[in-house]
């Protein structure tokens, strides 16, 4: 048993290194001057924030953060409402039709968004959603809904049905049972959905590249990509911009990591 625990700890440490080493190198590059070509494995013996200043000014990061906030907040709000409302009947009313719908929705998790990009782009043109906030919100929410419904359905299935019956005896309608009784109990799963969907929307590059064409609508990922071109390469600026981009996500995750992990385990019961 001790050997198994030791092997598990080693595997966890190796997995952590896979993520921490690149992040450490990004931090090192962000703190070095553009004329410093020393090893990226060692921190410089001086302190400078010139890469952060240059990235902030050159990439119009304030505009990118504002666009990220609009798209992320809209996407998260939409998937919470639609995902929770869709999951309630799927979890409460068991039937062959509902089981088929649930299985079909969950199976969409494995469908890559790029595999339907051509037809989706055509639809976006037809409904005049290209280069709009609401179009990006709709796309982000659509691709996030399968995993959100999976999490919500699994958690709602663990809630005793007696709570629904007691609420109906007190005079609640179906909508009242959901919004007054069930939805407040979904707090931990909702926090998981916020972090999961929020990080996906915040870091989305492919969809933003396809559907946001105006410079004023560019997200952070598109803004940072301007540091790379055929004749222009600013690794220090890119590293500093990446750190600025990831800081909000890290703050949110560290504040709610307990609820995030709990929501994942509770939502994956079924």
Structural summary, described in words:
The structure is a single chain. This protein has twelve helices and no strands. The relative contact order is 0.15. It is mainly alpha-helical.
The description of the largest β-sheet is: none
| Number of DSSP strand runs | 0
Rg, rounded, reads 22 Å
Class based on secondary structure composition and strand pairing: mainly alpha
C-alpha end-to-end distance: 29 Å
What is the number of helices? 12
Helix content: over 70%
The average pLDDT is 84
Low-confidence stretches: none
Quaternary organization: single chain
Order of SSEs: HHHHHHHHHHHH
What general outline do the C-alpha atoms trace?
globular
Strand content: under 5%
């Amino acid at each position: 048993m001790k050997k198994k625990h030791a092997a598990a700890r080693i595997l966890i440490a190796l997995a952590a290194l896979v993520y921490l080493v690149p992040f450490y190198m990004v931090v090192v590059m962000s703190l070095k001057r553009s004329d410093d070509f020393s090893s990226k494995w060692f921190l410089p013996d001086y302190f400078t924030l010139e890469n952060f200043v240059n990235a902030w000014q050159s990439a119009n990061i304030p505009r990118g953060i504002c666009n990220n906030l609009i798209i992320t907040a809209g996407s998260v709000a939409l998937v919470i409402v639609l995902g929770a409302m869709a999951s309630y009947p799927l979890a409460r009313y068991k039937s062959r039709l509902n089981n088929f719908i649930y299985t079909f929705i969950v199976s969409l998790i494995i469908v890559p968004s790029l595999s339907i990009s051509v037809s989706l782009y055509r639809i976006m043109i037809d409904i005049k959603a290209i280069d709009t906030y609401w179009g990006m919100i709709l796309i982000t929410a659509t691709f996030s809904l399968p995993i959100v419904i999976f999490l919500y359905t699994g958690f709602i299935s663990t809630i005793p049905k007696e709570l629904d019956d007691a609420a109906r005896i007190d005079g609640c309608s179906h909508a009242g049972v959901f919004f007054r009784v069930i939805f407040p109990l979904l707090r931990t799963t909702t926090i998981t959905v916020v972090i999961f969907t929020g990080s996906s929307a915040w870091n989305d590059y492919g969809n933003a590249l396809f559907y946001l064409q105006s410079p004023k609508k560019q997200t952070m990922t598109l803004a940072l990509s301007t540091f790379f071109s055929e004749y222009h390469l600013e690794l220090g600026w890119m590293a500093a911009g990446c750190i600025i981009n990831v800081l909000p996500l890290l703050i949110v995750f560290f504040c709610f990591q307990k609820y995030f992990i709990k929501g994942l385990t509770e939502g994956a019961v079924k």
